[in-house]
């Protein structure tokens, strides 16, 4: 099964299967000129334009009944500048291909999310991130952007060139133009040692500040209906490389984390009453392990179980209190939650609509397996997140609107003013952007 979104009978569906759209036409440009021509033609025909990568967003951020632009021919590395330590890639390049190509060149991104199926433009435009004490989201590593704007012209931006566009377009939500190329900061490839180990919920929450301070990259998963978590600490290492042995890797990452987990999800869907017992077994299935490898092999892992997700960024100092509220809510609610809750962090950055804009952040992500009713759980979780001025991930399920965002993003007006300038006729508008940015 493809990891990308699918299109059948003219209907486009996202990866999570919770969003569908019927575009008037699909365009797969082979060059920036062709993409610019497609935007101009859409304007002549009075059609809206949206670009979509692999459809890994759970929101309808890429849905359109106008022209759907598929960037899969706009792939590959344009340029590696070893003096500036940057790499420029075409917008449709999957993160997986970028990571492998960089490794071959002895280079790496500093930080990345935990999956690498997305295109570079889709991942950055929605604010995809991993976890880090000092290193931020993938978008925070951008040094330059090229985009086709509403009038079909090609605009380049960086800290020096069109800096006001650069401040916003790194996480542009597809609202400012269609990204055609991205220049990332890179560094010489390095090794990370990962230490994964179970820890009680009480221990991880009481020691959270120390665990965050002592590790370059700290994250954990809490299994609802249990007092158990699985923690992961990634830190730079002098080596030697000690990857997870192939058979052990298959057993733990494919068989347990995907195969058995998928079966557990099916059982949970068929008989929700079994979920707490399954959760207790699942939380004990993964044992402690330590391994050392190149970054993308440590940061990322396969995700084959389809799910729907809500994730909020909250002030880092509030995260423990909120997790305790979330646990209390689940324990009292009668909800049956079969998917672990993921907790990560990011330092403050200077991107206008980044979930970490201007504040050190922690992320709490709640998931439900594809096809199960998630609204009651997500609604209850969202009430906790929004009470603490949480900012939802732009590509994950949420119910917030422009009025809410104007309150939690100090620079919200800066973004909408730039959009008025770059896209006055709302060529890149859709229902989602109308809700989150206002008409």
Summarize the structure.
Helices cover 33% and strands 25% of the residues. It is of the alpha+beta class and 439 residues long.
Record keyword descriptors for this entry.
8-stranded antiparallel β-sheet; 439 residues; 5-stranded antiparallel β-sheet; alpha+beta
How would you describe this protein?
By secondary structure, this protein is α+β, with helices and mostly antiparallel strands. Helices cover 33% and strands 25% of the residues. Strands 17-14-16-15-19-20-18-21 form an eight-stranded antiparallel beta sheet, sandwiched between helices. A five-stranded antiparallel beta sheet has the order 7-8-12-10-11. Helix 7 (246-270) packs antiparallel against helix 8 (275-285), helix 10 (319-333) runs antiparallel to helix 11 and helix 12 (402-408) packs across helix 14. The relative contact order is 0.14.
End-to-end Cα distance, whole Å, is 38 Å
Shape: globular
Radius of gyration: 21 Å
Total number of strands: 21
Helix content: 25-40%
Percentage of residues in DSSP E strands? 15-25%
Please tell me the overall pLDDT.
92
Query: What spatial order of strands do you see in the largest sheet?
Result: 17-14-16-15-19-20-18-21
Number of helices: 14
What can be said about the biggest beta sheet?
A: 8 strands, antiparallel
- Helix-strand makeup class: alpha+beta
The parts where pLDDT drops under 50 for at least 5 residues are none
Please outline the helices and strands.
Layout: E1 6-8, E2 11-13, E3 20-21, E4 25-27, H1 32-44, E5 49-51, E6 67-69, E7 77-81, E8 86-90, H2 95-104, E9 107-108, H3 120-125, E10 142-148, E11 154-158, H4 163-169, E12 178-185, E13 187-188, E14 191-200, H5 201-206, H6 208-214, E15 217-222, E16 228-237, H7 246-270, H8 275-285, E17 289-293, H9 295-299, E18 307-315, H10 319-333, E19 341-346, E20 361-369, H11 375-387, E21 391-392, H12 402-408, H13 412-422, H14 431-437
Parallel strand pairs: 4-6, 5-6
Antiparallel strand pairs: 1-2, 2-3, 7-8, 8-12, 9-13, 10-11, 10-12, 14-16, 14-17, 15-16, 15-19, 18-20, 18-21, 19-20
Helix pairs in contact: 7-8, 10-11, 12-14
């Amino acid at each position: 099964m493809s990891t990308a979104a699918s299109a059948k009978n003219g209907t486009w569906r996202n990866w999570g299967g919770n969003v569908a759209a019927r575009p008037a036409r699909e365009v797969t440009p082979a060059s920036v000129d062709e993409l610019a021509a497609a935007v101009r033609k859409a304007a002549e025909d009075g059609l809206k334009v949206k670009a979509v990568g692999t459809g890994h967003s759970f929101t309808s951020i890429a849905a359109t009944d106008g022209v759907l632009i598929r960037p899969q021919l706009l792939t590959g590395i344009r340029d590696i500048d070893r003096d500036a330590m940057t790499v420029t890639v075409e917008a449709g390049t999957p993160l997986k291909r970028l990571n492998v190509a960089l490794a071959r060149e002895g280079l790496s991104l500093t930080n990345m999310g935990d999956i690498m199926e997305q295109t570079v433009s889709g991942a950055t435009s929605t604010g995809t991130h991993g976890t880090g004490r000092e290193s931020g989201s993938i978008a925070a590593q951008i040094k330059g952007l090229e985009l086709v704007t509403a009038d079909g012209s090609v605009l380049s931006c960086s800290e020096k060139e069109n800096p006001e566009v650069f401040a916003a377009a790194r996480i542009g939500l597809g609202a400012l133009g269609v990204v055609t190329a991205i220049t990332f900061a890179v560094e010489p490839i390095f090794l990370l040692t990962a230490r994964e180990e179970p820890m009680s919920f009480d221990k991880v929450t009481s020691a959270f500040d120390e665990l965050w301070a002592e590790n370059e990259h700290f994250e954990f998963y809490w299994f609802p209906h249990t007092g158990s978590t699985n923690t992961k600490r990634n830190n730079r290492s002098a080596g030697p490389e000690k990857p997870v042995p192939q058979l052990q890797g298959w057993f733990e990452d494919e068989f347990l984390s995907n195969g058995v987990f998928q079966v557990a999800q099916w059982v949970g869907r068929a008989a929700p009453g079994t979920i707490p017992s399954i959760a207790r077994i699942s939380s004990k299935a993964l044992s402690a392990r330590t391994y050392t490898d190149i970054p993308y092999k440590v940061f990322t892992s396969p995700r084959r179980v389809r799910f729907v997700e809500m994730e909020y960024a909250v002030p880092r100092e509030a995260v423990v209190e909120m997790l305790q509220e979330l646990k209390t809510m689940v324990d009292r609610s009668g909800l049956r939650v079969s998917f672990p809750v993921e907790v990560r962090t990011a330092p403050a950055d200077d991107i206008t609509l980044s979930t970490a804009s201007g504040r050190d952040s922690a992320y709490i992500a709640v998931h439900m397996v594809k096809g199960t009713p998630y609204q009651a759980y997500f609604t209850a979780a969202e009430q906790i997140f929004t009470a603490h001025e949480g900012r939802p991930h732009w590509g994950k399920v949420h119910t917030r609107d422009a009025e809410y965002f104007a309150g939690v993003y100090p620079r919200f007006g800066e973004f909408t003013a730039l959009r008025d300038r770059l896209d006055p006729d709302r060529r890149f508008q859709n229902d989602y952007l109308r809700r989150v940015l206002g008409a």
